[in-house]
Amino acid sequence: MAFIKSYGVYFPSFTIADNVLHPKGRANKHSIAYVDEDIITLAYAAIEVLKSKSNNLESVDAIIFATTTPVFKERYHASYLADLADLPKGITALDLGTTNRAGTDALILADTMISSGKHANVLVVATDISFPSIGKEARTLFGHGAVAMIVSKDNGIAEIVNTASYSEAVAEEFVYKGERTRYDPRFARTAGFKSNMKTVLSNLTPEDVDSLVINSAYVKLILKTLKTQGFDLQKQLAPDTLIPEYGFCGVAHGLLRLVSAMENVHGTSVLIDYNNGSNVIAINVAEKAQALSSETKDRKSINSYQDYLTIRKQGNFEGKGYKRIEMFSSEMIQEREKDQLKYLKGFECRGCKTVYYMKSARCNHCKGTEFVEKQLSKTGTVYSRTSEHYFPGSFPPINMIVVDLDGGGRITVQQTDDMYQDEKSIINIGDRVSLVLRKMMENDAKPNYFFKCRIVNT
Amino acid sequence: MKERRNIAIIGTGVTKFGELFEHSYDDLVREAGLAAIRDAGIAMDEVQAAWLSTAFPEIGVFKGRSGMDLSEPLNLYDIPVTRVSNFCASGADAIRNAANALEAGECDVAMALGVEKLRDRSPQDSIVKMMVELSHPYYQKGFTAAGTFAVYANRMMHEYGVTREDIANISVKNHYHGTLNEKAHHRVACSLDQVLSSPMVADPLTVMDSCPTTDGAACVIMVRADDVDPTRHDPVYIHGVGLSISTGWDLPFFDPHHDFLSFKATQNAANMAYTQAGITNPMDQIDLVEVHDCFSIVEMLTYEDLGLCKKGEAKELIRGKATMLGGETPVNVSGGLLSCGHPVGATGVRMVVEVAAHLRGRAGDRQVEGATTGVTHNIGGPGAIASVIVLSNEN
Question: Does the distance separating the beta carbons of B260 and A356 come in below 8 Å?
Fold first, then answer.
């Protein structure tokens, strides 16, 4: 028996409405990763939310990472993420992908790993960043988000009471050699979705279900069947409230719907995550979790299609008057200085207690020679700032912020989520900011991640 | 070193500063070097040791990587020649090293020559390249040189009531001075509105608050003061030389005690040089100053660090026009880096040549009348390395 012990959800700061994507578009929104975000930073941000809920990840003994939009090939994202999140060394790290069901695949696998007794705490992380073809955005349900969950043998928010998986050979659509292929829906939705649902639903008893969550765009096709089987659609079928606000978030979406159930339903929720077959996960919630909305305030709207196009270039930095550049980056520096670069560890002078981010032989204040390592905070107050108009970036200027961190230490970093230099985004001396991990630059070899800051709107 | 320095400059030479496509690095070395030799009234082979200051060969024309790039164009061989690189203080450090060697008796006649050739590169490949493409992948990534000083400007405005106009008026002053200097890169006066409305570089600093990168060279010939021959030489004496590295490339932006209101390196270098020269009241004892105004705000900060005014009062010097030509202590009558431009390795030497011209009464339209004591100041890196040199026409 396993439990969802805790979870963290992250959505990027920006959204775009369908009517900005297309003149005839409606009011539905899509959550859009900023230009310096990718699946790694989204996953990291979700884990940070998890940590902020007082979750100590020291006892995590496995991580499963699900995505259909990997940034690496032939490299384990789960291992990379485990290192970034400072999880225990050498733990089991698995990548799952190729289908939007991979998020719930990961949860079922985690449940199995816990039930087998080989693992005690498995971190499941799911995220996707995909964009539809240019011009088709307003007609496509897409959005970006990430979810991280700790599946544990210890009691938690929800008990995983049952899991099952039902395979299906027919897929309504898929990608082959980079091209999306759709079968004739009259055939595929019958031979695929409806056929598979028949099998799934035959194993469900309406009386045992307080809330039925079906993660599929085709749910309307089986409403009659559900009724016939005895489900009260009004009371038991959970609407997808995420789609209008965030869009469909790929592998994360099934888990996000489960989170939504944990926050809204007391009792037993059953998630049917359909995509070329179904995963079924039944959970029991004794006490409702904190609302999802608490982690998604301060979202900003993208005002123009042009801005959206720049964002979707995702890290191709071309500044004013700048040709494409290849900035210096070094895997060796990253590894050598990982305590500072990844984990934000500093040094406190034993004598005067001044905290430094950078290592030195002597304290610059009292000339003491003894230091103790100190974990720096990710929140602070702005000491000074400037806006760099000649540093290349997708949305110049680059705002550079000198931050005095809470509890000591100073760091100077770029601001992020500052596409629009409006009142909400401009950072002044004395403002409160928080540090977030973002992509600094992208060259042909690899992405490079470091901390940036964003304003904390009070 | 507490005693007064015992060194004389007997020859100076400086090229036109600017976008000198027609001149090679070697041409600039030859022009400045030969001018200084002629001015000193000596033969090339009387030079017994030399120091070459070029800060950034790799973003220039790959010249200046060693002393041989001074020897070759001047055909000055078979003597020790050392390349000096200390960011924007490189030129002044070449002079400091030459002075030390003379005082140590290693040589009797020394040459310090600074040269930089930056305009053969596009702006992206020049100074900006170091910050954008070649530095640490994360620390300070996002800054150009302008930004590293703009954070001082914003803090100074926040703390001391300095206005944007106060900072811009430094540029107005120095661009006026630049019209009087035939060797300056830009010889165009500008109004306050022009400074404020020119394109933003790093808030609040605009293009007109920023010095250009420039080609140029300057050279001095130095001897011990005791070896000055009054019948041959028109000497200027070095009474004090200070150089201090007081922080690192990154530390200012990661040190919680750093207040972004002063440059400790300047204060230390000034203290060293003033102590040697017996300067106790800078505003009264100094007749002119060449300050490292790579960005207008740096000149304002330096007024306080050099002791020309009390802390927080630099704005009053600008508002009262005390540092204009004709004012109490003119600063950057050459036009400063804002007008002359900034061939990094040459700038410190160019400043000494400028102050020497005033002390010798040879500065033409911009002559500071009756000047007997002048000071040069350079600051390099993000306020990390500073040099101060005190010069006098009295031994």
Answer: no
How far is residue B382 from each of residues B60, B262, B298, B387, measured CA to CA in Å? 20, 12, 11, 14
Distance of alpha carbon B10 from alpha carbon B235, whole angstroms: 5
Contact at CB, A412 and B124, closer than 8 angstroms: no
**Would you tell me how many other CB atoms lie within 10 Å of the CB of residue B249?**
16
Which residues have a Cβ under 8 Å from the Cβ of B313 and sit 6 or more positions away? B304
Q: Active-site residue B88, yes or no?
A: yes
Closest Cβ–Cβ partner in A384, A386, A440 for B137: A440
Using the Cβ of B124 and the Cβ atoms of chain A, whether some distance falls under 8 Å is answered with yes
**pLDDT tens by residue, chain B, 395 residues:** 667 888 999 999 999 999 999 999 999 999 999 999 999 999 999 999 999 999 999 888 999 999 999 999 999 999 999 999 999 999 999 999 999 999 999 999 999 999 999 999 887 777 777 888 888 889 999 999 999 999 999 999 999 999 999 999 999 999 999 999 999 999 999 999 999 999 999 999 999 999 999 999 999 999 999 999 999 999 999 999 999 999 999 999 999 999 999 999 999 999 999 999 999 999 999 999 999 999 999 999 999 999 999 999 999 999 999 999 999 999 999 999 999 999 999 999 999 999 999 999 999 999 999 999 999 999 999 899 999 999 999 98
Asked if A413 is an interface residue toward chain B (Cβ–Cβ < 8 A), one would say yes
Q: Which of A35, A389, A398 would you mutate first to test chain B, the one with the most B CBs within 10 A? A: A389
Choose the catalytic residue: B23, B88, B186, B358.
B88
Closest CA to B209 of B77, B300, B95, B94: B300
Six-digit token string for B53: 């200051």
Residue type, A97: G
| Closest partner CB to A322 (pick from B124, B255, B257) | B124
Distance (Å, whole) CA A391 – CA A157: 47
Tell if the CB–CB gap between A326 and B133 is shorter than 8 Å: yes
Identify the CATH number of the domain defined by range B7-123+214-235.
3.40.47.10
Instruction: Tell me the chain A residues in contact with residue B202 when contact means C-beta distances shorter than 8 Å.
Output: 386-390, 397
Radius of gyration, CA atoms only, chain A = 23
Query: What is the CATH code for A331-455?
Result: 2.40.50.840
In this structure, are strands A345-349 and A371-375 parallel, antiparallel, or unpaired? antiparallel
Of A449, A389, A260, residue with least CA distance to B202:
A389
Kindly provide the ipTM of the predicted complex, given to two decimals. Answer: 0.95
Give the domain ranges of chain A.
Answer: 2-312, 331-455
Classified by CATH at the fold level, domain A2-312 comes out as Peroxisomal Thiolase; Chain A, domain 1 (3.40.47)
Same CATH fold, B136-211+237-392 and B7-123+214-235? Answer: yes
